[in-house]
Amino acid sequence: MVALTLAPAGDRETAIWDDAIDRSVNGTVFHRLDFLAYHGDRFSGRAHHLLLLNGSEAIGRISIVIDEIDGRRKAFSPYGGSYGSFAFSSVPSYKKSQEAVSALLSFISEEGASSCRLTPPISCCAEETLDTFHFCLLEAGFRSVNRDVSSVCVLDGETEQRISSRARNAARKAMSSGVEVVHNADIEEYWTVMEASYIAQGRQPTHSRENLQYLAEQLPGRIWVDVARLNGVAVAGVTYFVINRRVNSSFYLCQDPARASTQSLTLLLLEGLGRSYADGYRYFDFGTSTTSMKARPNIFLFKESFSRSGIFRETFEWCQP
Q: pLDDT tens-digit profile of 251-276?
């Protein structure tokens, strides 16, 4: 039987790429070409969209950038997104996992890259565990170089019971104070809260206002913002990224520090969890509560008001011997 190979996606394949990602067992919004397009020409000439072929059948897809850094060519997947590595059409066997890793390393070698860094989607993004594939990465010489914890809420009939009484009381306080939740709000209004929370504190968000506006327009129903208003003024906001058909997520949690006592952000999140469950998502990803394997205790404390479940977001790296 012919071993798996990697080949560049042609025009026909790129035209159906996003549909194939949506049908895959672990593909995410960050694998989609319409998401990556928001970068414009930033990765021009360095991005490769590759098909994992079993003969002539595409059984996986990967987008990867090869960049020259410190005089060495290095490969990265994801680039310009949170998750990368392969999106598989079905769960690969041990043998197919080995062949996929071998095909990737052959491509890296042919491109003259001396290293490759992969961050696959967290486990809840997949229909079934893909740890056999991750084992094959390690078997082939990849190392686990980073493990951060994503705080994840399971969405089922018992979600409400898992939410702390503190969070429920905070949401009731916000409602009794007259806080109003606006679903699918205007980006301009939302950005006033982003400026008060992120930017005023010297933190630069990953996306500019124009980036976020572009993504919300290009991916309606997948990326949007909600805001909480008090007396007609936006005081908190959440950016939602639908990861795939199983997982919704919050990409940014924003709150005007001067209005934190209103508990508006807690109300927003409780509303968002309820809506996500009603819309059929099985998980809600609050994002990482650690950075480079160092805990952010205050972040854990806030997110654990909604769920204590944590899932590793793992990064693997191969370096030329």
A: 999 999 999 999 999 999 999 999 99
Cα 263 from Cα 268, distance rounded (Å): 9
What's the CA gap between 289 and 276, in Å, rounded?
Answer: 21
Q: What is the pLDDT of residues 47-57, one digit of tens each?
A: 999 999 999 99
Please count the residues of the chain.
Answer: 321
Measured distance CA(96)–CA(2) in Å, rounded: 11
5-141 is classed CATH 3.90.1800.10: no
Tell which CATH architecture fits domain 152-312.
Answer: 3-Layer(aba) Sandwich (3.40)
Predicted model pTM? 0.94
User: Residues 6 or more apart from 204 whose CB is under 8 A from it?
Assistant: 198
pLDDT of residue 1: 58
Angle formed by the axes of helices 165-176 and 264-278, nearest 10°: 110
Which residue blocks in the chain are alpha helix, DSSP H? 11-15, 17-23, 33-36, 94-110, 131-139, 159-162, 165-176, 187-197, 209-218, 264-278, 297-303
Domain ranges of the chain: 5-141, 152-312
Domains 5-141 and 152-312 share a fold: yes
Dihedral class, residue 119 (left if φ above 0, else alpha if ψ from -120 to 50, else beta): beta
